[in-house]
Amino acid sequence: MGNPFQDQLLKAGLVNKKQVKKAQHEKRASRQQNKGTLPEIATNKAREEQEAQARRNKELNRQRLEEKRQREQQAQVKQLIEDNRLARDERGEPYNFVEENKIKRIFVSAEMAEQLSRGQLAIVKLAAAYEVVPAKVARQIVQRDPEAVAAFHEGPP
Fold first, then answer.
1. Strand ranges for 47-156 from DSSP E
2. End residue of a domain, out of 46, 72, 98
3. Structural domains in the chain (count)
4. Within a domain: residue 61?
5. Are 130 and 106 in contact (CB under 8 A)?
6. Are residues 103 and 48 in the same domain?
7. How far apart (Å, rounded) are the C-alpha atoms in residues 61 and 90?
8. What is the pLDDT of residues 87-101, one digit of tens each?
9. Do the beta carbons of residue 60 and residue 86 sit within 8 Å?
10. Host H or E run for residue 84
11. Global pTM?
């Protein structure tokens, strides 16, 4: 029979051969049933892990694309400022403006100071320096990076 415990029960007369065969059959059937569910559980778990990995990859790709977009916008802002900045007069009159609750000062000609106060020109920040650009360019910069514009007295459109 193969099972010493079943052999002992059979010899003792507590069970007959039919009952032993039935018990073996049930044991074999339950093993077959469990074999079917174990791979299914493993497959479900593997599928869940793949879905989780796909979600993580999608989020990382979204973050990379967002960072790339921000770098491109920063490059566009820098290009706009460098291409359109106006020459300042370092011996001209000081023009004061507020940035981050601090009063900053640049020197511009009297004509530029008047245009700044009327909203025809704007002051933008490029790296650690300040540059003066036309209002049209300042509006383009505001669309890409509002924090790059330090002073722009734009009236209602």
1. 93-99, 102-108, 121-126, 129-134, 149-151
2. 72
3. 2
4. yes
5. yes
6. no
7. 47
8. 887 788 899 999 888
9. no
10. helix 17-84
11. 0.61
